Amino acid sequence: MIDSSLVVFNSLSGKKETFTPLVDGHVGMYVCGPTVYNNIHLGNCRTFISFDLIYRYLKHLGYKVRYVRNITDAGHLENDEDVGEDRISKKARLEKIEPMEVVQLYTLDFHRILEKFNNLPPGIEPTATGHMIEQIELVKDILNQGYAYEVNGSVYFDVLKFNESNSYGILSGRKIEDLIHNTRTLDGQSDKKNPQDFALWKKAEPQHIMRWPSPWSDGFPGWHLECTAMSTKYLGDSFDIHGGGMDLKFPHHECEIAQAEAINKKSPVKYWLHANMLTLNGKKMAKSTGNNILPMDMFTGKNEMFKKPYSPEVFRFFMLQAHYTSILDISEDAFKCFRKRLLSFDGGRK
Ligand SMILES: [Zn+2]
Fold first, then answer.
1. What class, spelled out in words, does domain 7-275 have in CATH?
2. What is the model's pTM?
3. What pLDDT, in 10s, does the model give residues 221-266?
4. Domain segments of the chain: what residues?
5. Ligand 1 mean position to 295 CA, how many Å?
6. What pLDDT, in 10s, does the model give residues 22-44?
7. Would you give the DSSP letter of residue 263?
8. What is the CA(257)–ligand 1 centre distance, in A?
9. What's the CA-to-centroid distance between 62 and ligand 1, angstroms?
10. CA-CA distance, 257 to 337, in Å (whole number)?
């Protein structure tokens, strides 16, 4: 038995807990990967570097770790309420290229950047399009269990039905009554019985180019479905760690729990770990406000935010000062100071 006093902050309990894996000596870890429709931004990098540190530390302790991190290459719509265009399809339409060219371009970018940050690759990196059969089977299972319904070729998860015997909102702390009051009704845009229901399968509109045959329609899977299909395929019905950015807690991870519990009747994950946001000069990073910097522009120094280039090592070293659950702010002043510290740490070799 590995004797460690590793303590993790579990989002499910809201407490620090001693880490004890389900199977002695082994750890199963699933981390939600990127939707590959644009360049990875620094906030995403923080999430993946955080889990790289966790992965390395677990291995260092002597655990045999199976680390699965997916690539979302279909099914992620622009809006969390299951409306809008598929993000990859939209990019392909705007750039006049094939959706799979978009996927290839930004998957390569993602790998290139994470390699610069000295991240280890995961053991398995499954894609949504590579697991269409598993996702369709999952929809069938949830329908058979009575927690989903079909309308006009689309299949939706019945949140209220699920909540009769389970707790929807257990991870994010949201109450079903508040969700009912606060979820917008999308008049005429949705076939859902209730606005808080979420799509398991969507019938493709004629202009939607990414589509697969299914028993219900030619369409595509809901975004939340792929992570349940791929995590259970490679890590089993219950596994140790599920990670991702804090913004995925709701609805994405809440929906993953509901899907898995609907078919397996047990909690899928023992420890939920969420990495917090990265801010730039004290403000939220966003493309729309210009308060944004791409990793490559930070490395080359060709950007509006910083006067000098900063290496991936400086960013990685800088990240170690904060716990992954707290908000971390980056600024040129802070980076300057950390570059000096890194130089002294490295015996002045850099
Ligand atoms: Zn996910």
1. alpha beta
2. 0.94
3. 999 999 999 999 999 999 999 999 999 999 999 999 999 999 999 9
4. 7-275, 279-345
5. 23
6. 999 999 999 999 999 999 999 89
7. H
8. 11
9. 27
10. 42
